[in-house]
Amino acid sequence: MAQRVFVRVVGFTDVERHALNTVFRLSEQRDTAYSLWMADAPEAPRLALVDGQSYEAPLELESPGNEGIKLIWVGAVSPARAWRTFDRPIAWPQVLKAMDELFAPPQPLDFDLDFDSGGPDTVPPDERGGKRALIASADRDERLYLRAKLALADLTQADEAETGARALELTRAHQYDVALVDLALPDMDGWALLRELTGAKPGIPHVIVSKSRASMAERVRAWLGGAEGCFDKPPHPGRLQDLLQRV
Predict the structure, then answer these.
(1) Which of 35, 66, 186, 217 falls 20 to 30 Å from 72 in CA-CA distance?
(2) If we measure between CA atoms, which residue out of 232, 231, 228, 220 comes closest to residue 245?
(3) What is the pLDDT of residue 1?
């Protein structure tokens, strides 16, 4: 069932407020939506998001209206009652993830009980080997670059797709541990492809997307869509490598 959570926001720069408003707006697409709390809101706030560098921060801590609600603090020195603390620059997807830990309903367990007693031959071929990766990009040089980065992370089994249709065909034939996807494939909308990949059964545990000049809103949209990372093109080698090492 869909729910709305009102958040009391204290402080922050105009740029940070704009980013936060984008996060709130994009959350409307989900079962748990977040809204800025105002005095005329139909419900009391369930969370306070406080800029520790603002002059209002000490007043907010002393406000009796904040008793009993969780506090997310942004700043170097956080109070003891802060539930989560973040430093600047603010990683808004991580803030949203913390909020979801509080309010998003737990995902149901998806049990697939297979009582087939056919023996060892029933194990899918991909499960017998190492981890397998999918590279989806129309740019040959980009595919070679990503294949090299995967190899450095000991992910040497990689299939390549030049189109979204080919990427979906491969996901139906193989179980992948990670997918590196260019959102600008020529034959289909990149966001639609992301939905297909993250919603597949069985799913791909790690989906990483790239897009030229990706905006902050697009990065949040990618994260909300199930992507573990959203990189500019070409991806930053160090950050990509760090992410692949965790796969």
Answers:
(1) 217
(2) 228
(3) 64
State the span(s) of the chain assigned CATH 3.40.50.2300: 3-103, 128-245
The pTM of the full predicted model, rounded to 2 decimals, is: 0.58
Q: State how far the Cα of 236 lies from the Cα of 234, in Å rounded to an integer.
A: 7
Cα torsion angle, 167, 168, 174, 175, sign = positive
Residue 235 contacts residue 137 (beta carbons within 8 Å): no
In words, the CATH class of domain 128-245 is: alpha beta
Return the H-helix or E-strand segment holding 71: strand 70-74
10-residue mean pLDDT profile of the chain (247 residues): values are: 89 90 82 91 93 89 78 89 89 84 64 37 46 92 88 88 93 92 93 88 86 84 85 80 78
Q: Would you say 20 and 9 are in contact if contact means Cβ atoms under 8 Å apart?
A: yes
Q: Which two tokens stand for residue 222?
A: 């990618």
Distance (Å, whole) CA 10 – CA 165: 46
Looking at residue 107, the DSSP 8-state letter turns out to be P
CATH 1.20.1530.20 fits 3-103, yes or no: no
Q: How far is CA 72 from CA 22, 76, 77, 85, 98, in A?
A: 18, 12, 12, 6, 9
